[in-house]
Write a structure and sequence with these properties.
The protein is α+β, with helices and mostly antiparallel strands and 300 residues long. It has ten helices and eleven strands. 41% of the residues lie in helices and 18% in strands.
């Protein structure tokens, strides 16, 4: 059967029109993400930036959230900044201890191993560990004991000053973990998805301290042991350098995603007021997968 040339052109145009209408655009992706999260009770924030194209999606990016353990990334940044300045070396050793001072009145408090995601350090109190080891456990296992020791060393005020210098103007790192007197007075660490996007983008571009420091921090973040959100539904050959955070009714994940083809993007997913944390984590993992498919689409 012979098709008339004009009909052939018409069919070709219709095919192209259909293909274009079905193609995922940034606006469609944002709508899809919003729809997915709207189906979950709770409050969510998303900050995404493709570091190759500059494409960005921001949803509730200036909303404050309890930082939970996402604040450990700013603390790590401060460690590498001070180490580069010669204040100490990452190879310096420190005695493991479990007594810290409240920022309210300097009264002593200690941490409970059963409330910490990393418990091995508590079995070695009185022994020495390198600063690098403390930072490593603070990030990959989210050790609260290591975190409090590191914050005491670098000083939370310095962490805040560095965040402002980097352009993260809303992150507040006021204290370590389990300072119940500070919590009772509302002195909490807070963040926004925008600010976490800012610091991870600078890290990905090698613009924090120097490129070697950024590479070292990324190497630690790549070994994160809690992988239920951003990496959960991604292919195994996709690498994620990230830091999670969670407290009651709160689930966060934030970091840099590296594709095998060399592309990379920053993704921050924050949540609060969650009645069902497991369902929320699954929805956030679905959002992460949507973004990966968009960035990796060869026809985009």
């Amino acid at each position: 059967m012979k098709i008339h040339p004009k009909l052939s052109i018409l069919l070709c145009n219709l095919f192209l029109l259909c293909a274009c209408s079905n193609r995922m655009t940034l606006d469609k992706l944002k709508d899809q993400i919003s729809s997915t999260l709207a189906g979950q009770p709770g409050d969510f924030s998303v900050a995404f930036k493709d570091l190759s194209t500059g494409e960005t999606i921001l949803i509730n990016e200036q909303t404050y959230f309890h930082a939970a353990s996402t604040m450990k990334t700013p603390v790590m940044i401060e460690v590498y900044k001070q180490a580069a300045a010669g204040v100490f070396s990452l190879n310096d050793s420190f005695v493991l201890k479990n007594e810290f001072r409240s920022i309210v009145d300097s009264s002593a408090f200690s941490l409970k191993p059963e409330d910490d995601s990393e418990k091995e350090l508590y079995r070695h109190l009185g022994e020495k560990r390198t600063l690098y080891n403390l930072v490593y456990e603070m990030i990959i296992m989210s050790s609260n004991l290591a975190t409090n020791m590191v914050i005491e060393l670098v000083n939370a005020r310095n962490v805040m000053q560095t965040m402002r210098q980097l352009g993260a103007n809303k992150i507040q790192v006021l204290r370590g973990v389990e300072d119940s007197k500070a919590y009772a007075k509302g002195f909490n660490n807070v963040t926004t998805s925008h600010d976490l996007l800012v610091i991870f983008e600078k890290m990905a571009r090698g613009e924090i301290v120097d490129s070697a420091s950024c590479d070292a921090m990324i190497k630690i973040l790549l070994e994160q042991q809690f992988n239920e959100i951003i990496p959960a539904r991604l292919p195994k050959d996709v690498k994620v350098a990230h830091k999670t955070g969670n407290i009651s009714h709160v689930q966060h994940d934030s970091g840099i995603v590296f594709l095998p083809n060399g592309k990379k993007y920053v993704l921050v997913l924050l949540s609060k007021n969650l009645p069902d944390e497991d369902k929320a984590k699954k929805a956030m993992a679905e959002v992460s997968e949507m973004i990966y498919k968009y960035v990796s689409d060869p026809d985009k």
